Amino acid sequence: MDYPNLESKSAALYRRALNVLPDGNSRTTIALKPYPIYIESASGAEVLDVDGNSYLDFNNNYTSLLHGHCYEPIRQAVEAQITRATACSFTTEAEIELAELLCSRVDTFERIRFCNSGSEAVMNMLKASRAFTGRPKVAKIEGLYHGSYDFAEVSLKNTAEDREGSVPIPTAYSFGTPDSVLEEVIPLPFNEIDATEAIVKQHADELACIMIDLMPQTLSMNSPSPDYLAALTQLCKKYDILLACDEVISFRLSLAGGQGMFDLKPDISTLGKIIGGGFPVGAIAGRADVMSVFEPKDNQSARLPHGGTFNGNPITMVAGKAAMAAMDEQKFEQLNTAGDHLRSQVTQTLEKLGVAGQVCGRGSLFAVRFHNRPMRRFPDIVVREDESLFIEKLRHYLIGHGIWIGANMAGSLSTATTDVHIERFGQVLGEGIQACENFLPAA
Ligand SMILES: Cc1ncc(COP(=O)(O)O)c(C=O)c1O
Fold first, then answer.
1. Ligand 1 pocket, residue 123 CB under 6 Å
2. Chain-wide mean pLDDT for the chain?
3. What is the whole-number distance in angstroms between the Cα of residue 131 and the centre of ligand 1?
4. Does domain 72-325 have CATH number 3.40.50.11810?
């Protein structure tokens, strides 16, 4: 097959969708030009589209499918639950079971609360930090994606130029963001310790939390350096600021998530994606005293009331439990070893072709970049325009040759990914680089 093919069924469905859906879909992050691909079915690591083309899935619904598609234990758990109750204004034991499983694995998770997406989890983590500390502002790292809450979006689209010296400027992501939001969010420069210390000191009395991500997708899956994490931890202790860890993606790094791998002790964390077994999910987890903002006390309403018609819904709870219970330390190790295999395949491919490039990431997460800059500071990590154009051309080639990967050439593996799939990825990537060599970015 070739992508794009304007005669395809997918192209026709997209034309139809445009009559009723803005941009033809409900999710900016899956938009693909000139048209998105419509799916017929999926199983394990493979997806079949409506035109009969098959793809090896290296995106796994933006990292959320730990076991690929239609994993049998999840299917069975959901089928059994669907005949009992799907959504109800009662609580279920299934919610306690998933909470117990997650809290038993991560020692900073003394209490947990479920919602329906990572964006909601981040929103509630920031609100909980404000409610707990009584302080209005939050700090985050420039350029990091944390979902669609407008406070979390500040400085998401910063470029290397959006700085005064080493101080990142708060910028809005969407039109209409009130200026007041920009005044309440303090962006910090990734991995730049001295500048971060100075900024935090300046705002210390007003800061409720510093939010971090141990595996930031928008920073090409480059983790913060250990010395930067140690500095943030120290700053939080010194000024009574909460350390807030967004584990929506990084939780797939180990049995105790990114914080387990990096030996970090956040006060509060978010979860999403993998803990729902392929169904909509989010969660906020953390220290019992911090999480007590969700509890009514002395006949007063909670400091942070938190409703949600589908929070803790039993379908997500049983699916999440089936997905997470199937993982133990050894399974995470196997999955992470598959990630090492993929990274070495990509490195070999780049070396063989003599092309400037590198593969970032760890565990089952990876991103391919086409330059040899060191990846420590934000201005070096930002993907340049010519690199972005090359990635787009290469992605179209990969899609046309049966490899499905996200728009930013970042991906993730599942327990359904085999060595054969990974070797195929390396091979098609190499062929794609050669086919697109006219677009290779200047070194
Ligand atoms: C680090 C991080 N936080 C939050 C979110 C938002 O999660 P959701 O898409 O479930 O709202 C994402 C989504 O990709 C994410 O990567």
1. no
2. 97
3. 22
4. no
Q: Residue 31's pLDDT is what?
A: 85
- Is-above-0.90 flag for pTM? yes
- The ligand 1 atom at the shortest distance from the C-alpha of residue 272 is 10
Fold agreement (9-70+328-439, 72-325): no
- In the structure encoding, which two tokens stand for residue 185, read together? 């969010």
- CA dist 367 and 391 (Å) reads 11
Query: What angle do the packed helices 314-325 and 93-105 form, to 10 degrees?
Result: 30
What CATH number labels 9-70+328-439?
3.90.1150.10
In whole angstroms, give the CA distance from residue 408 to residue 391.
7
Cα(221) to centroid(ligand 1), Å? 14
Give the mutation target among 64, 122, 218 for probing the ligand 1 site: most ligand atoms within 8 A of CB: 122
CA of 246 to the centre of ligand 1 (A): 9
What was the pLDDT predicted at 29?
Answer: 86
Q: What are phi and psi of 341, to 5 degrees?
A: -60, -45
Atom 5 of ligand 1: nearest residue by CA position: 147
Helices within 159-266 (DSSP H only) = 179-184, 193-203, 226-239, 257-262
Residue 134 CA, ligand 1 centroid: distance in Å? 26
Q: Is 61 in the pocket of ligand 1 (CB under 6 A)?
A: no
Residue 443 pLDDT more than 80? Answer: no
Q: Is 392 exposed, middle or buried (0-12, 13-18, 19+ CB in 10 A)?
A: middle
- Residue given tokens 């983590």 in the structure block: 125
Q: Which of 264, 413, 396 is nearest to 334 (CA)?
A: 413
Q: How far apart are CA 324 and CA 274, in angstroms?
A: 8
Ligand 1: does its nearest atom lie under 6 Å from the Cβ of 213? yes
Span 16-53, pLDDT tens digits: 999 999 999 999 888 899 999 999 999 999 999 999 99
* Domain range summary for the chain, segments of one domain joined by +: 9-70+328-439, 72-325
DSSP-H helix ranges across 212-313: 226-239, 257-262, 288-291
Q: What is the pLDDT of residues 235-275, one digit of tens each?
A: 999 999 999 999 999 999 999 999 999 999 999 999 999 99
**Rounded CA separation 280/397 (Å):** 31
